[in-house]
Records
---
Amino acid sequence: MAIPTYDIAILGSGPVGCALALSLADAAPDPARIALMGPAPAPRPAGQSIDPRALALNHGSRRFLETLGAWPGHAADILTVHVSQAGHLGRTLIDHAELDVPRLGCVVAYDELLETLYAGVRRAGVTLLPERPPRPLAGSPVRLMLADGPRTARLALLSDGARPQGLHREYGQHAVLATVRAAAPLPGRAFERFTRTGPLALLPHPAGDALYSLVWCVPPERARILTGLPDAAFDAALQAAFGQRLGRLRRMGEAHAFPLSLHAGPGLLGRGLVAVGNAAQTLHPVAGQGLNLGLRDVAQLAQVLRPWLAAPDAPLQPLLERHVRRRRPDRALTLGITDALPRLFATGNPLVRHACGLGLAALDLLPALRKPLARHLLQGQRL
């Protein structure tokens, strides 16, 4: 049988795909036998950001990216997270000192993170194929139908963000994203406020001490209205939803809205096909766990594949099956937390909402309850 064109083809050049390529290249005898498929990041105009997204990366994700030499130059530390529920008593604080870490996490600009990762992949000698990745055909080897002809790979890793098939839930919410300036900022403090329409998060922004990244989850029609409001009306609506903890809030630039849904499918899609990141699961943005879970997929898959990269003729499928089994508990717990929280706090049942408030108060008073949840949000389950 002819030798496959590549040992590994990674389909998707977003942050998860780039981190995967960089992790595997470090262990590969010949990094050019690894192909990363997908467009290169679009160049950013000086001083401007193309993508409105800012990403919350927890402590475990930062350490992982630092080991890859792919930590971006600008980041805003999250030292404390303040969790509250609008209209009800009860709140909890999660602080880095209690968990004995220098920070709970950081916020980085999506486009700067992607540029940093892609530059690292380029330096590592990975083969870059800038066309949009096709859907591969499982087998031994995996077949890839490219514009200039067919290619083959021993293994294809899907990180392209295509919605996985399996568990699906529509939340009836859109996330409104914007950057806001606070008159009375609290350095290092992030906020997660649960409202009747969905969670509202304000995260320290890497572009300035008084700036915050807003993720405001609301029904689709409300999102359409909010993104069309002039600055003063948007500011008033945000102030009414969030309160006065940061003083006067002012929107900086435009707001953007994205629909929210849960999709989760199998990690192993067939012989020689594995899904990671958004190709395996897309989550509600509450608690900012989506990319962090995807990076844990990457770290553990790269660990499993390191010995195989040195001897790619060795049996592969048992390694992939073991990887999927090892990832199952972390995926299930993170999916469960991020699915339950927005639905519980957005319920119209007053008894449930009061119970949620009591739950926040209990978390604040009882470290034995708070610390396990905080530890999981800090780093997930890492084997």
---
Amino acid sequence: MHTTIRRIVTGHDAASNAIVHSDNELAGQWVDGGIASFIKVWTTATSPADNNDDFDGALRATGLTCPGGTVLRIVDFAPGCKSPMHRTRSIDYGIVLEGELTMELDGGSATRLKAGDVVVQRGTNHLWHNTSDRPCRMAFVLVDAKPVQAGGVALEQNYD
């Protein structure tokens, strides 16, 4: 199963020319007893982002989300794994890069996703279930959002 990615970050030199600022491998961190590996590729502290900030966004302390900012994360789901049901205070763009898995919503629906599929997760309570015998790799971009309102009630985030 994948546990690393190559990350290339660009920037500018003193003459305002575009340069490759860094080119390195990032290792994943296993979560929930080894059901998935998370690689935090980059974060921003604000949105809109500040491209003048030279801080390595992968080193910023965050939870799943970054209040006021964004998070780019690669997740490798182990075969047979099932995440906890969770909701974040963010809008999440999930792109299946390799493999297949099922998105289950607390309302009871289950949607099968395969490589190339994109999910726009809008503050819904959901879980990920890899029912296959192969790993599934997804890229997630999480953008901080206002709490979602449903039925006149603000729905709180819930995740560990």
